[in-house]
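Subject: Sanity check before I submit

Could someone independently write out the structure tokens for this chain? I want to compare against mine line by line before I put it in a report. The sequence has 832 residues.
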Amino acid sequence: MIECKRLNALPMGSKPTFRIKFFCAIFVLMGVAVNMQAMEKDMFEKIDTQQFDPATVMWYAAPAADWQAALPVGNGRLGAMVFGSHGVERIQLNEETCWSGGPYSTVVKGVAEALPTIQQHIFEGQPIRAHKLFGRKLMGYPVEQQKYQSLANLMLFFDGQEKVKDYRRWLDLETGIAGVEYTVDDVTFRREVFASAPDQVIAVRLTASQPGALSFKAQLRGCRNSAHSNYATDYFRMDGVGRSGLMLNGKSADYLGIEGRLRYKAELQAVPEGGTMKVEDDFLIIENADAVTLLIAAASNFKNYKDVGADQEKRVADCLKKVEGKPFNAIAEAAVSNHWNFFKRVALELPKNKRSFLPTDERKKDPDPNLAALCYHFARYVLIASSRPGTQPANLQGIWNEDMNPSWDSKYTTNINAEMNYWNAQSGNLAECFEPFRKMAQELTDQGAQVAKEHYGARGWVFHQNTDLWRVAAPMDGPCWGTFTVGGAWICNQLFDHYLYTRDEAYLKEILPLLEGSVQFFLDFLVEDPSGQFLVTNPSTSPENPPKGPGYEYFYDEVTGMYYFTTICYGSSMDIQILTDLFGNYLEAEKLLGKESDFGRQALAARKRLAPPTIGKDGTLQEWTEDLGQMEDRHRHFSHLYGLYPGNVISARRTPQYIDGVKAVLEQRGDGGKGFSMGWKMALWARLFDGDRANKVFKVYLQEQCCPQLFAKCGTALQIDGTMGVAAGITEMLVQSHEGAIDLLPALPQEWANGAFDGVCVRGGFELNMKWDDQRISRVEILSKAGTVCRIGDGAAFKVLQDGKEIETTLNTDGSLEFRTVKDGSYKLVSQ
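---
Independent answer below. Compare away.
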């Protein structure tokens, strides 16, 4: 099998070689005998825990105790969580379009007439009246949305394996392969699992060190929605498909009165080498084999958010036909080579010590510096595995979900979480993985334009804090959350930031209508505050923190059927900061494309009237336009710090007058919190150039809000947003580029005194290789992908070489070093 140990580094663009050996030289695939070449490496060599790279291999000395400790594999569309158990193994399966319901709309026609009254209630200090009227009139219907659901479980039953020795379980981030190995008596058993993007199957390879020693039963189990379904509408059926496999057919649940029209199919086929195979009832039985390959294909009838007319049967049949007669090593090589081409673009090295080679769950207890590199690489691995061109975006749990009723429905939550999933896409050299997010934004403008018209009487498009596979856009859950009108605006800002990394003019032209539509909505929606001086959003909310002040009382909310403090307000700081960026980004896009319009001039005039950041009477940056208190002063969200990160409204350099207020917020909220908030705090402290504090937060995250396999938790529920946010925070500690120059090591922790970061991307269209020793830069290589002007912050100590010759540079008054580049040109910074 493919080795767990790290493959030797290869030049960019080259393919890894595979050292694979099969115990039996005859490979039987769908009844066809194929000769396999003998490979040089003995597949039963034990994992050498002192030789692998601890920045790219996760390993454990015991099976996963529960789903949140299982190891993920994925190809963007198909996902699996591998437990690595002996005796009874569970491999939990997902297909990205397996959602409840079907195409539907939550738009309520003709309710915009209630908006002025709601706004009046808020301005007059009657937030509960505004909340209740918003709930009766402006909420979408249905109030809730659909759910991402589990597909199936592959169960493997092994007799006589209750007690084992020499146990190892691992995930090699470079190859994308999860594995387990253990010994029973004198036989070593090994399983490896990966999800192939080229062949669109999940492959499970089982081997034994002695001929004829491999026997097991396989069962494909569907999942029921016990809380929100009935036996007439939510069903699955499993059938044998002859002697070589099992088949599962199913249908999504009726939920919220919406017909469950999604159909899905999963099929398992087995390819034994030696031994016998048969199907009895719903079991596939393998006896006395030398090795077995299991291939799992799955698909639904989903075409797009408005059409479920595809043929899932044909899709699965086509996948299995593609791999029919294909040797296992060819399937493995294609899968790993595809994954490698994404993963190997970036390498991060940080100091190692003896703890770096311990099992990953042990490393978390007392983190070594190199564990930050493993977390960074794991985040990139997760994005590669859950978001590829042509797939759906990564949701709250990426593509991995075991529940039919998961926490927060495992949707796309856009008051922080969905955006955070993609914070590291551009800098992590994974621009292609951002494409599903961009496509979702385009699709949201469909119902988003209808909501703008019917709910707000406005032009353009608007989107709130949640959506699902069907791209609904109206307010949902209740007014506490649904009054977040800037979800679409935040997405637009992220779309524009993608352009800043790529400098792709064709892409900028493509997204300009989305930015323009969002700006158009807010030009209609913004109103003057009671002073008549500023423009504010109304209604508004600061996710998800309730204000404390006149009119804010505990009350019964008939929409949710619960008692609440309302969050409804006007002009939350987050809203204003997001719109400051949105209008500025739109104006910059117009300028870059040589466009000048009356619409742009309106946007500029409105931007100048947006309420500025303000320091409150308690010394913190205000969370709302009004100087209100907080019901939860240690709240998990940092909504009013959006302008520092990921936005670009507040700056330690450009707006120092706000920095004490920002720090006061960070101190007040503390270094703990939910998983997603920890990654955000790391990035915020990094923007304040405090790497040691960011590193302190990182360590608290590892010990309190991080699962054994480095997925983040939000309380007790797994989410991937914190995983991705941590990687973004690590990047901000090592390189920043949001203020027009590349800042090298702006927030380097003392513990990371030596290291290297190769392949990282920065704004302006540049890719960097950098190395540092004793906290000082010792090597910087720059690849200019777009041929733009390059600026290096604090650049006086450097000269610039191209092809070994010094080129002309300019030292600016702010200390930055500036030089022109040509597209695809390579440059080196050398100390003076």
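---
OP: Matches mine. For the report I'm noting this point. DSSP finds 17 helices and 40 strands in the chain.
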